[in-house]
Amino acid sequence: MGGKKEVWQRAQVFLGITFGGAWLCYATAWGCGQRYGSAGFDMVMVIASVMPAVAMLVCRKGEEGGAGFDPEAWGVSPHFKGTVPTYLLGYGLPALLAALTALMYFAAFPGQYDPTGQSTIDAFVQAGMTQEQAASAINSMLGMGVLAGPFANILLALTELLGFLGYLLPKALLLFEKKPGLKAALSVSAVWAVWHGPLFFDGYFYGTGYPGAPFVGLLLGMVFYFLLGFLLCYMALRTGSILPACLTRSGVTAMAAAAVYFCRGESLLLVGPGLYGAFGCLALLLFCGLYLLRLMRMERSKKLWYQRGPKEKKKLPGKAGADGRR
Question: How many other C-beta atoms lie within 10 A of the C-beta of residue 218?
Fold first, then answer.
């Protein structure tokens, strides 16, 4: 029990720094008249996204053997052996989510489907492009989103997930005796979703002019982050590394608006066809259902998370936790 109490205390310190630092940044910006979408607030969001990494560094400094860079303890060792399929999932999932979301949305609203993207092309032409330039720009943005999107925002994803997946998730595993993987993934996903909560009061994702604002957006946005967080936790548990999850986190940001290019007329961001809408949450829910079953099956067989080999264990001092990491 003493061990669990210490783990819980360290988790509380991490949460205090992560939430306090980020939410203080937002409150300060709002107090200075900055709002979501402005250049000043974009910088505030960057600073807030670094807070989980800062909290991780502070917490590890007070732990035995925690000072200095340890790729295993930080969760950044790649562990490619036996985990390549999960890396491929991390890389390809954003594009799959965008395609599935678009398929479901346009099946529900076929009148809004613009297969050539002519509505978007016309908007670009009005901004000064030629038809050819506009069409080429759409193709380039889609291609870059699919191929380079998982790397485009990976540094910010890394700072965020170093804390939540590299530090908090292993701690959460130690707090649960039965089904630790499932309970830790659900808990960390919920915490990560709540951490984003204040942004939805300022028009994050959905703007401010939708019915039920801002509380409907707050609810839907937190559902989105909870579902996405569960998938990210699964990848981290499966590989013993946060890197595949970073690919997905970065790629989702890059592919969030891909389907909007093929949408005719006005659409409600709260619904779709972007990834953050209700149809995007439904696509996430389908993948979560699949990997929830896989997680439960692997946990029953005691093969849920990555285990270090004998050579890896000899390199690191200290007692290993249930996930093969300290």
Answer: 20
DSSP 3-state assignment of 241?
A: coil
End-to-end CA distance of the chain: 18
> Rounded distance, CA 249 to CA 167, Å?
17
214 cis-preceded (ω within 30 degrees of 0): yes
Which H, E and C letters describe 95-139, residue by residue?
A: HHHHHHHHHHHHHHCHHHECCCCHHHHHHHHHCCCCHHHHHHHHH
Q: Tokens 């946060």 sit at which residue?
A: 242
| Other Cβ atoms closer than 10 A to 172 | 24
Contacts of 284 (CB under 8 A, 6+ apart): 97, 224, 227, 228, 231
Helix (H) or strand (E) holding 229: helix 215-239
Region of 324 please: left (phi>0), alpha (psi -120 to 50) or beta: left
* Omega prior to 180 cis, within 30 of 0: no
**Out of 13-27, 201-215, 244-258, which region has the weakest mean confidence (pLDDT)?**
201-215
Rounded to whole angstroms, what are the CA distances from 13 to 40, 58, 78? 29, 9, 27
- Residue-wise pLDDT for 162-214, tens only, equals 999 999 999 999 999 889 999 999 999 999 999 999 999 999 999 988 999 99
How far is the C-alpha of 67 from the C-alpha of 321, rounded, in Å? 18
CB 113 within 8 A of CB 268: no
DSSP bridge partners of 165: none
Residue 267 DSSP SS3: coil
pTM of the entire structure? 0.91
Q: Is the pLDDT of residue 314 over 90?
A: no
Q: What is the pLDDT of residue 69?
A: 85
Task: Show the tokens assigned to 172.
Answer: 């959460």
According to DSSP, the residues that pair with 113 across neighbouring strands are 263
CA dist 239 → 1, 61, 78, 85, 142 (Å):
28, 25, 8, 10, 29
